[in-house]
Amino acid sequence: MGPIENANEKKPGLWDESEVVRPPKSISDQIYDLLKKKILNSELLPGERLMQEEVAEAFRASRTPIRQAFHLLEKDGLVERLPQGGFRITRLDVEAISDLFAIRAVLETYGVELACDRIQPEAIKTLKGIKEEADHLLDSNSVQREVKIRQLFELNSLFHETIYRSTKSGYLQELISNLRNTVLRLRALGLRNDRTWRRSWDEHGQLIDCLERRDKRAAGKLMRRHVADAMSHVLSQCNLGEGEEKG
């Protein structure tokens, strides 16, 4: 199959927030951190061009640190150099997405099953607090959509990381950490489908119940379904192309 691409149309408000860079980090490192966050949050989407002049103006920086930041992102595999010059956000192949989610299903299913044996009451309390915060956010009509997406993404990541830590398995956490950048990108893409929010957090609530009851079988089954649904949501947010260059 061909790669997944997204139109290069400029999203309103993408650079509206104040992008101020300050010491002690170098300017290029700070720009790298901010751009990486936008990519992982899917504020910058697969296939989207990164315009050096636009980014330089947004960060009020010269082109040199922008180029250095782009090169760091390229090393991370988050951007790719274009033959005609410039960079774009790395596109995601359907096959690569399927492979990644298959690996996630194995690791995260094992993780929740292990957590059923090892999780402590404090971690359960943390998970419930995260779920409650997410529910309040979902019920709010005063939060702008992009802000809501960003906050739900952060809460979702914190929820899963709490489960990973509760396993007390350094090996598992290291394996998941190696996939972190791609996993975060895919989670954020899935969250852009508003219709998935409520169901996803309902499943989080069911998972807390499984962990509290230490029901490994139910937790594993729920996590496998959760990951499969997440893959479906990601693919629904992407346009399947035939590999042609855009923009």
The biggest sheet, with number of strands, parallel, antiparallel or mixed sense and barrel status, is: 3 strands, antiparallel
CATH topology of the largest domain: Four Helix Bundle (Hemerythrin (Met), subunit A)
Going across the biggest sheet, name each strand in turn: 5-1-6
Q: What is the string of SSEs from the N terminus onward? A: EHEHHEEEHHHHHHHE
CATH class of the largest domain: Mainly Alpha
> Given the helix and strand composition, which structural class is it?
mainly alpha
Number of helices: 10
Q: Which architecture of the largest domain does the CATH hierarchy give at level 2? A: Up-down Bundle
What level of helicity do the residues show?
A: 55-70%
